[in-house]
Amino acid sequence: MKYYILFSGLAAIMLLSACDSSIERSSLTSPTAETFFTNETEIQGGVNACYNFLNECKGGYFDANYSLDGLADTEYLRGDNTIATINGGAMDYTTSTCSTIWGRMYQGIGRCNLIIQKIDENQNNLSESVKKQFLGEVYFLRAYYYLKLISYFGDVQYTDKPIETVSEGKSITRTAKAEVLKHIYSDFDLAADYLNGSTVTTLGRATRGAALAFKARAALYNGDYQTAKTAAKQVMDSGTYSLYPTYEDLFSEAVMRSSSNKELIFAADYDLAAGITSGYLRFVASRMMGGYCTIVPTEAMIDSYECIDGKDISESSLFNKATRFENRDPRLYYSVVLPGDKWFGVIFNTHKDSTKCYNYETNTWVTNKDCYAFTQYCSFSGYLIRKYVNSAYLSSIDQSENPYYLCRYAEVLLTYAEAKIELNEIDQSCLDAINLVRCGRTDVKMPVIPSGLSQTQMRKVIRKERKVELAFENLRFQDILRWKSAEKVMNRPKLGRAFLGSLSQWPDVTFDENGDPVYDYNNYVPHPSTDFRVILNCYFNPDRDYLWPIPQREILMNPDLGQNLNY
Amino acid sequence: MKNKERDHYVPLLKKVKRIMKVTTLFILCAIFSISASTYAQNYKVTINKQNSTIIEVLKEIEKNSEFTFFFNDNRVNVNQHVSVMAKNATINEVLDKVLRNTGYVYQIIDRQVLIKASASDKTNERGAVAQQSNKRTITGTVKDPNGEPIIGANIVQKGSTNGTITDVDGNFTITVPLGNATLAVSYIGYQGTEITVGSKSSVAVILKEDTEMLDEVVVVGYGTQKKVNLTGSVSAVKGETLSNKNVMSAAQSLQGMASGLTITTSNGEPDDATLRVRGIGTLNNNDPLVLIDGVSSSLNAIDPNDIESISVLKDAASASIYGSRAASGVILITSKHAKTDKLIITYKGSVSSVHAMSLPKLVNSLEYMQMYNSALANDTRKDDGTLGGHNYSDELMETWKNSTDRDAYPNSNIIDEAFHGSTQTQHYLGIATGNEKFNTNTSVNYSWEDGILSNVKFNRYGIRSNNEYHISKILNLGIDLSVRRRFYDNPYNNGDDGLAGLMRQAPIYQTQYSNGIWGGNYAGTPNSLMYIENKDKMTYEEWSEILGRFFITLTPFKGLSVDFSYAPKISDYKVKNVTKDENLYNYKTGEVTYTPKKPNSMYRKQTQTREDDYNILAHYNISLGKHDISALGGFQYLTNHYEYLYAYRDGNPFPQFEELDAYSVDNQKNNGYTTEWALMSYFGRINYAFANKYLLEANVRYDGSSRFANGYKWGLFPSFSAGWRFTEESFMKNFNLLSNGKLRASWGELGNQSGIDTYASALNVNTSSYAVFGGSAAPGYAVTNYATKDITWETTKVLDFGIDLGFLNNKLNATFDWYKKRTSDILMNKNIPYILGYSNSPVQNVGIVDNKGWDLSLSYNDKAGKLNYQITAILSDVHNKIIDMGGDRSINGVNINQEGYSIGSLYGMVADGLFSSWAEAQSATPQWGKLQGGDIKFEDMNNDGKINNDDRVVMGNTIPRYSYSLDLAAQYKNFDFDAFFQGVGKRDAYVSGYYQYPFQNETTPLKEHLDYWDEVTNPNPNATLPRLSINQQTNNLKESTFWKRNGAYLRLKNIQIGYTLPKEILKTLLISKCRFFIVGSNVFTLDHLHLSGTDAESPFSAYSSYPITKSWSFGVEVQF
């Protein structure tokens, strides 16, 4: 009986102690959101987190910071089904990339909206200068994200306040692109205003210059040349920026991080400690370097570089098929690894005969793992990208930490020039801007563009110049869309260098009105074993592909969003 | 007169029945722990009778105990006077006194006491015979089908009260009148039989086991119940059926054994299994709750040999006592507790030969080159449709074909080189014993398997000890302890490096040259086989589970018992991953062709789960005439604590030391976190039975979960069930064909909160949203995950109608259940518009899913001559349908969740063969990309003249329909045989990934791919594979019926032949049982996939890291 009493007591204690508090558990890792973002430290962290989506598709082969031009004619990207799908014109609203971009941009926007609200609610806890700095950065980022959205999707959902409930989110329809653009301008203006006088110039942070430069880009992309011209001019007149003296060094990490580099306007930075690294090196490095060589330049890109006389290879007397890489715009040599180049200890070549390659460091011949005879999966085009390749990260090839330009001064100059051309204000300032890019550096001295060219001729000049100067810098895809040249270039196959045969056997090339190469490859008599190489047959539907589809995920939740044409 | 006196004593059937009930209950229900076998020792008598007749004394004892007295016929004079006085004496002491000098002796067999004339008292016996010369004596034996004597069997002369019982050797003697007499022989658990004596003076009786014992007890939630009295839907499986299968894991052994329980394995790694009770009820976690002796655990946590029984609780009535965690069904495992005072030692061991069941068949180098050329020619077609170039010239292929130098012109097959047969052994040793104060059952098990891939190792060992202490009549204590450890070494970092990695070595690259030098892959880097053979990418996984249960049982008075239990559990999972890399060399020159680009590295990952389970239970039983009432009340508090820790380092100058400290600190990384949850529950049950005919049961559970916000924490889950044993009705008495029949009905509600995040209702700040500025990390704080606060319990309502029938004296048994299960307020990760700014799809209460189905199980047991055989067939079907998703659809690749269709239905385009030519493709409606001959042709399903995503249709159901199994068992003399088939009658499978796209990720095509469309060699619009491509995809990868397959299959899972050595041989060796067996598992499969390397049981993944295996084992089972 005494047991009985004892255990009844025990039972009573257990039952009585049982109440709601016994089954309450909360996160042991992080604070709850309700009481957060109230002081400077917390809001600073919130502002920092708004930068998390600078690239709209991140990681892997397809990354907006280094391989977006794989969507265009100048770059080829192997191994990624999404890119193959988009290049082949097989994209539809189920393609995951659409919802990735949509999702990332709205996450960025959502964070910006929340922080703007929190800064407003807690402004008494912030000094005026800190508040201005925070607001300036956040307005810049919100405009940056909306610019990406309208560039891909046209009309998009717009909000400048946090959306609290799911039903509210589902009820928001799309706002016309032109309307969103006005908000983008206004945000960039606010950012430029708030950041005016800011001394924060850390690489990766938004600045007044960045706000104006991106406003110019936004205007240019949307055919608002007056705004583009004005904003670009503001950057040029600010006195903050100038071209870096050498193009060759411009993309080295040391120069990018150097205060002497006045060309950098905005960049994306990486750091292993933060777990934010880039896999770029692995994708562009040769097999000999231990890379995959999956992101490579196309023949169209190589052939777009003029000869040093300023003429296309179809016209220049300096051009010789057999020695086709000689006498070219030096930017070719600084941007691309060509067959026969010394590259990380050995001579790079993918040709089938090059089973051995010369190691000029040890002066021996070694097995060439970039040779087609050994692998089909060396560089498909026979070229490699040189920009940003940084030997410091070869030992951790998928974890590079070097930054990437998101905007540099040369682009602003070309934006100014293009806006002037489109406005038909082709004056000396327009020519000066282009010519500064063509011959304003010590290692790039291309002939100046003469005055007196027609608007049509100048249009070709500026489009070629952008392609060459900004090669592999992820601006090409939007350029061919806004120039409506995508329906031409993206319906031509992507070509690469031959497996066999000699350079002199290659087909003839002519250039169209945009300065893009056209090959007569259908009449070309190939070598018994393909020596002129179609890497990829592309397909672009002009009635559909200038805008991307609204993702299935969003339409399923909100059918009122509507779909872009022909998807 | 004597006969009249004896009416009180000879086979008091009613009382025997009560004893049977109590005995079985006591044996099987561990909570009550007075051991039946020690009853006589424990029973204490206080008696004072002077000069009374023997019969009066015995009457007195019988009244106050469970003993029944039997007399050896008429030779005992029960009216003889005796005197006895005893206090707290044992029954032996009392009987010694009572029978002293009477010339009678007694024998106690359990609760039955046989009083007989002493063998030495010949006079008496003779006298008796002389007095009754019109009678004769019959002697006999009663044995079971194995020849074991049955002790204490009742023998009654039919039509009289004349009877006796068998002694320890199964012998009996009975005196019957001259002339023909019929003896009725019966014993608990055996089918009774009748024998006509005729002129025989001795008879041999063999009693068959009653396979569907009316008194069979099954384990139900928090207790046990007689099977006949069950009103819920429960599939019960006996432990021995599982251990006999001789497979590695309990999950494998349970496959197909319980109706309504589907177990599938997705790869060949031991312990990999997915359990589903009656299909998929919810859109999130569908794993049933697995309890071992009431403590939540997993099927992997127990050795099949340690299992006493398994019950699968399928309907709400039987499962709702577990309320919140029972929505996907409950699997109750009872481990073996000692139940005898004999010392029993069991050893079981086996050796197996293991092979892959199906491996991918790779093309040879010539076929590879042809296919690559075909793909390249397609991809590089010119605008006018002429084929593009190729990579391998005809001359080269000719040279390759004819070459005998396979180092220069390789024709490797990395799959054949990598996989080989392997060996597996298993050992089990169990010891059980007990006495009146203590009983124990302890076992150890060990199994070891060398993988079919080098450096794969699977080891497992476990110790379990179940102990009970009988402190006093009202107090029992118990401690169960189990330690289980599993080790899995595998030579790949993840699935990509395993089978998938091997698949990426085309036959044109040598894996290892004839001089032993390793070859490279397509990129000139090491191939996966080198890494596997050289242990360059080793993962060492280790699981440990320590589980304890301490319980106190109080039985303050008859009918009431109260249990307190505390069960702590610690589960550890540790991973050590060590990655190295090596040089490659030119096989001729020795030149280094590859040097590692990354430093060697390692990481450790550890998780620990601690669970504390507190329970209080009170049982109360009472019988009032024909009314049997039992009640249960309980309280449970469960807390769970989970920790995660990860650490990484690289750069080790001494790679032979594989510990973190051996590596450089320069690039070290770590992270970790802790999560917690808790559950609190009150529950109760009432059972009511009237005359064992009308049965009612009601359950209720009130559950609170920490996963929900205040105000949403608690949920109430009631259930009701009823049964009618119509064969007990008098109007059924004449239907002799039907020996047992019961109708059941149940309704109830179950809750579910599993599968959702621990803090699903809380909006938290992510403090690791770092940003980088100027080369350094800056802290970033963001609300990354949206949370809906108002989420609460997901509820499943189950309606179940069942019928149990037994025919021909229960030779044929059938159980059928029809059910309808509706899950509402489904907790589902549901997309929210991205404009809210979050990346997650938060959990919300949305949707309704219905599962309608039925389970049928049939068993037939009979004998033909010396052949005993049993046939068990199980067939079940479930029809799954999403009723409501709040108007939403969710599409994930080829799978769609949409109202009106089953969960995870296949969704895609309708294919109509292949385009036969370039010209046909050009004239087609635009579809995906630039079409060519050999691309899949799609139909315009909505007739809008366009072919796009709007033409997608629901094209298949991935949930198995008509799951069936068939078990055929037979015993002949000392041989036994068992064959177990399992399969699915209807299911849609989908071929994906690599099987659609042979060159994806540089993988090697399969022989099955050889029927590919090719403009020159095979322009067949019905080819099995569309035109090949390296990198240019059009319609071919779009989800479509082209890739749908019939997923039905039949598999011979298990076949077994055993031989038991005859008793006569064993007796001299002190061995009570010795059996040899041969077991084959996964012997063959019939399916419609026709793809090497696939497994019909999981027909959606192309291949996994480790293929499914088949094995043949030889083993022995010995009992001392």
Any overview of this molecule?
The complex is a heterodimer of chains A (567) and B (1120). Chain A is mostly helical and 567 residues long. Chain A has 20 helices and 16 strands. In chain A, the strands form eight sheets. In chain A, strands 1-5 form a two-stranded antiparallel ribbon. A two-stranded antiparallel ribbon of chain A has the order 2-3. Chain A has a two-stranded antiparallel ribbon with strand order 4-12. The longest helix of chain A is centred in the first third of the chain and has 26 residues, at 96-121. The radius of gyration of chain A is 27 Å and the shape is globular. Chain B has 1120 residues and is mainly beta. Chain B is built from 16 helices and 57 strands. In chain B, the strands form 14 sheets. Chain B has a 22-stranded antiparallel beta barrel. A five-stranded mixed β-sheet of chain B has the order 15-20-21-18-19. In chain B, strands 8-7-10-11 form a four-stranded antiparallel β-sheet, with no helix packed on it. Classes of the chains: A mainly alpha (567), B mainly beta (1120). Chains A and B meet through helix 1, helix 2, helix 3, helix 4 and helix 6 of A and helix 10, strand 33, strand 37 and strand 38 of B.
* Average pLDDT number of chain B: 83
Please report which band the strand proportion of chain B falls in: under 5%, 5-15%, 15-25%, 25-35%, 35-45% or over 45%: 35-45%
Strands of chain A, total number: 16
* Beta-strand percentage range of chain A: 5-15%
Helix count from the secondary structure assignment of chain B: 16
The value of Rg of chain A in angstroms is: 27 Å
Straight-line N-to-C gap of chain B: 50 Å
Q: Uncertain regions of chain A: pLDDT < 50 for 5+ in a row?
A: none
What is the structural class of chain B?
mainly beta
Distance between the termini of chain A: 80 Å
Q: Which percent range fits the helix content of chain B?
A: 10-25%
Helix content of chain A: 25-40%
Structural class of chain A: mainly alpha
Largest sheet of chain B: 22 strands, antiparallel, barrel
Strand runs of chain B, count:
57
**Outline type of chain A:** globular
For the sheet with most strands of chain A, the description reads: 2 strands, antiparallel
